[in-house]
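Before anything else, study the sequence and fold tokens given here and see whether the fold suits the sequence. Record follows:
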Amino acid sequence: MNARDLRAELKVRRNEDGFTLIELLIVMSVMLILMTLAVPQLLKLRKQAQETSAVQSLRTIGQAELQYNSAYPANGFSCSLATLGGDPKSGAPTAQAAQLITPDLASGQKAGYTFAISNCTKVTVNNQDMYTSFEITAVPNSIGKTGDRGFCTDENNTIRYDPAGGTNCTQPIQ
């Protein structure tokens, strides 16, 4: 093999190695188009999952309120998420730490929503304060990003929502 043939063979091999810049740009363009279509749908599904989690968490807190009322009838309902929570390692449940909900829910933050118990009605019976009603709210941490709707329930466990993401809940969940 002479030097001329060797150079020609090396030139052919150089042209066959790897992808051309145009081929890489085409592949990247296709990937960007696919991502443009997929990412908004993924964000929408995530938001729906967080709203579903918020509704389920409201149900859990509502059930915990009924259990609390049954376990501590002199207190009535709880007007605090911390009271419904509590660390099981700290001993037996008490009226101040009933251990009825998980610590993440008792903290008031879960799955992009903030939970609170408010609008508690208190009466005094035999020098003992008793809560006879409450409202549980769940509002998105970032409206439009972590959720679109706010949710509310009360001692009747009817869950309603606010389409604006606040606590003016007028629409029933279907």
